[in-house]
Amino acid sequence: MDYVSTRNKERKVSAAYAIANGIAPDGGLYCPTAFPALTDADWKTLAESDYKGRSALILGKFLTDFTAEELADFASKAYADEKFGGADTAPVVKLGEGKNLLELWHGPTCAFKDMALQMLPHLLTASLRKTGETRTACILVATSGDTGKAALDGFHDVPGTKIMVYYPVDGVSPMQKLQMVTQEGKNVEVVAIRGNFDDAQSAVKRIFTDEDTRAALDKDGMMLSSANSINWGRLAPQIAYYVSAYCDMVAAGTIAQGDKINVCVPTGNFGNILAAYIAKKMGLPVNKFICASNRNNVLTDFFKKGGEYNRNRDFFTTTSPSMDILISSNLERLLFFASDFNDKLVAELMGKLNTEGSYKVAEDVFAKIEAEFDAGCCDDSHAADTINKLWKDENYLCDTHTAVAVRVYEDYRARTGDETPTVIASTASPFKFCRSVIEALGGTLENDDVTQLEVLSQLTGVPAPAPLAALAGKTPRFDRVVDKADILSTVGLLKDL
Ligand SMILES: *Cc1c(COP(=O)(O)O)cnc(C)c1O
């Protein structure tokens, strides 16, 4: 399988090359040039496999320069039972009125990013080997909170790699910050940026496209790579859990093989929902994708207002910080796919986004997108109501991001009357956003963030995840804060790791 940039499909590269390099030199995102189909035999194998087997099978369809043995080995390590609290890596919890919560947060950092970032270090180190790369891969990560910790956990002390994480100084939850600044490992660095997530992401993109920086790193035997969802190696592992959820729903009798489902995803950078879209292209029977946003509803407007994307708007800090994003990077891949791989068109739109902060998709392309996607948004108070109601009515405790998706799904169902069983991505443990969840339940807040875990636990009788409880007593290691204008100067830190 060949990969090309969304902005120039002339130059074809291997999966290993795309993963090792993260982003294309023209600033575009690497994409497969075709969608491999799941055969009847594949579906039979998938149904009989555990999550590790399902992941290896799906990855094998895309990563054709990796052997089946390699991928099986990576999957068994990445999704080891001791890392995900058992063999049920991504369980589906069936609730009322068509809701099927796909819990993606049983990994070591309690957010769905682990599903990809426990796999990525295996894919990346193998990709470096396969492409004959001898330099140290320096992984730069812009995070709205969850990616940073998941990437640190995945890459710490992985030979041949260094990792540097940038997070917005006031844009992450206290628990997210604590998780990052207490990270152990010799090859890690964590930097706070004055600004929001978009500032951090743009700054990291600037490092990637700065020729002088690349040359200087090269001289010191280093190269840049990415663990954000712009990296295909980050996106590919996410496809498997939608297919896995479908198999589990068939096994549970919720649906019959071949029945359609909807997929509703709390969305920020558009990576998670795009993985579901790719699963559909492989043959997963999906009726509608429902894109859920918080008050930063640039995507809702895009889908609801005829394909006009406009980031020129106020940025809000919300109780679902991992979705506080105005530039959804992976929408670029959707445009590429929906326009039948039209690189010229994508390059033009992305150019406009860069210079004007907005663009409008051609009508014929948007018509295709509109046929498959619905969208909605939900503010903090409705998200809090949803956490409260879900707990009281269905005894299900969810986090703020998941609550946004549940609410948007309920609105969609009421508006359209569509009763198709719906997979709702549950993207973080409620304990990761303790304060907001305790407030939503009407509990009393404590000052100390680790003590909050016990408060929520006592309030609900649900035990706090062990990796979060273990943060008590850990000493922060990183306290550097820089202006976004000075981000290039932080690259020098990599040398000393
Ligand atoms: C990252 C994240 C999201 C958004 O996912 P995207 O792939 O960026 O759209 C939603 N919820 C949580 C908890 C996250 O960590």
Q: Would you give an account of this structure?
A:
This protein is of the alpha/beta class and 497 residues long. The chain has a domain of 217 residues: Rossmann fold, CATH 3.40.50. 44% of the residues lie in helices and 16% in strands. It has 21 helices and 16 strands. It binds pyridoxal-5'-phosphate. Pyridoxal-5'-phosphate (PLP) binds next to helix 12.
Q: Which properties best describe this structure?
A:
497 residues, alpha/beta, Rossmann fold, six-stranded mixed beta sheet, five-stranded parallel beta sheet, 21 helices, 16 strands, 44% helix, 16% strand, binds pyridoxal-5'-phosphate, Thr_synthase-like, EC 4.2.3.1
Set out the fold topology:
Layout: E1 3-5, E2 8-13, H1 15-21, E3 30-32, H2 40-48, H3 51-62, H4 68-78, E4 92-94, E5 99-103, H5 113-117, H6 120-130, E6 136-142, H7 146-155, E7 161-168, H8 174-181, E8 188-194, H9 197-209, H10 211-219, E9 222-226, H11 232-251, E10 261-266, H12 271-282, E11 286-293, H13 298-304, E12 308-310, H14 331-338, H15 343-356, E13 358-360, H16 363-372, E14 373-377, H17 380-394, H18 400-416, E15 422-426, H19 434-440, H20 449-460, H21 466-469, E16 481-483
Parallel strand pairs: 5-15, 6-7, 6-9, 7-8, 8-16, 10-11, 10-15, 11-14
Antiparallel strand pairs: 1-2, 1-3, 4-5, 12-13
Helix pairs in contact: 1-6, 3-4, 3-11, 11-12, 17-18, 17-19, 19-20
The structure holds pyridoxal-5'-phosphate.
